[in-house]
Fold these 3 entries.
Entry 1:
Amino acid sequence: MAKAGFRPKVVNMEDISPLWRLRGVPDELSSCHVATIGGYFTVGHVPPADVERLLKEAPDAIGLSVPGMPLGSPGMETPSGAREPYETLLLLRGGKSRVFARHA
C-alpha cells in the first residue's frame, strides 16, 4: 500500500476478528489483515487499485474483502510469479457481498 502512495499505520494485534465482526463482515469473508480508509473497511490482500476505485466511486457499502490469501495478490507474490485467479468483493450491509473486481 505504501508503494501505491497510501500511508498505512501498522498495528499488530493477536486477534483481529472482533474488528471485522464489529463492522458486520461475515467470518467466511474475513482474512488476515484489516484496514480502515475513507470510512470504509478492507479485509485481506486487497489491491491498491481496488481501494482507489472504492474511494472514487464511493458506493454505499462497508468496504472490500479478498478472502483467504490468494497467490499473486498484494503481499502474496511468489518468486516464480505464480498467480491464481481471485476476486475482490464489495462488502454490503447485512452480510451480503458482490464481485467488485476480478484478478487473474
Note: The chain has one domain: 17-103.
Entry 2:
Amino acid sequence: MRLDKYISNATDISRAEVKRMIKNGIAAIDDEVTTNPAIKVSPGQKVSLDGSIISASKHRYFMLNKPAGVVSVTKDNNHPTAISLIYEHRSEELQIAGRLDIDTTGLLLVTDDGKWNHRVTSPRSKCSKLYAVTLAEPVGADYAEQLANGVLLDGEKHRCMPAIMEQLDSHSLTLAIGEGKYHQVKRMFAALGNHVVKLHRFQVGDIILDDDLAEGDYRALSDTEVACIL
C-alpha cells in the first residue's frame, strides 16, 4: 500500500494533508525518513509520523437494520443508500455484502474487507440467508418439497440450490437459501404461482439481526460474528 494511503487510512488525516506532511520529512518507514508519498509499505514494516508509530487500520464490519425505501448501493441519485446510513470515517470504502431489494427490510452486512464480502456472497461458501416471508396467497401444501428440490426461476437455465422452508401460518413462513440471485426469493415464489408482499432478512450465516436494533441503525460486529463467516 502507498505510504500516504496507509497513514490516511490509519488516522483521521486527509490524504492531501498526509502528502504534505510526508514531503516535509516527518514520516519514516522502519525509522528511515522518506519524502515520497507513493513509496510502498510492506506487511511487517513499521511506519511512524513525527516519531509516533502508526498502526495499520483494521478491517471494519457492521450490521445494519435496513429500512424499506433504502437501496443497497453506494450511490444513488433518487433514493437514500445503505452506505449513507453508516456514519463512519472513510465510509466511501465500505461495501455491501449481499444486497437487499429496495422494499426488503432487515439484516444488511457492510464491510471494507473484500475477501470477507466474497465469503458472505459466494454460493460456494454455503453461507445461508434466512428470511421471514409473507405471501399474498396461502402457502401451498407442496411448497416445502418444491423448494427443497430447487425451483427453476423464469429466465434461468439451472434450478436454484435447495431451500429450506418452515411454515408459520397460512400466509407466512421462514426461508433459508444458500445463494443470492437477483430478486431471488420473490422470483422463487412467483415460480410457485404466488406473490411476496413482505420480505425481511433476519440472519446471515450465524449472524442474527439484533432485535433491539431500530430500522436505520447499525452497530459493529463482534469478533465472534466476523469469525463465523469462514
Note: Residues 58-126+212-230 form a domain with the Alpha-Beta Plaits fold (CATH 3.30.70.580).
Entry 3:
Amino acid sequence: MNGRGFTLIETMICVALMGITAALAGVTGAQMRMNAQVEIQQAQAQLVLDSHASAASRGVAVAPEATARVLAPLPDGVVTWARAGSARTLTVAWRDPHGRAVTRSLTVFAKPGAP
C-alpha cells in the first residue's frame, strides 16, 4: 500500500468481507423474525386458552365470534375441548410459520352445569 490509498486487491477483499457479513446478517435476521412469529402465535394461543378457561370456570359460554377474532392470527387455528366429569381439557391447534402442526392444552375444573 502506498501512502495515499488502498490498492484494488485490498478494496475487493473489503467488499467481499462486507458482502459475506451482510449475507449472514440477512439469514440471521430472517430466522429471528420467524422465531418471533412463533412466539407471537404461542402467546395468542395462550390467550385463547385463558379466555376459554376463564369462561369455563365461571360456567358461561364463550361467544363464537370472540373465539374467531382471537384465532384469526393462527393459521388453521381450532379450539377443541373434552370433558371428563368436572374437568375440561381445552386444546388449541394451529400451524406455525414453519408449517408444523402445534398444539397447546389446558385442563380446567368447571362449575357443575357449565356449558
Note: The mean pLDDT is 85.
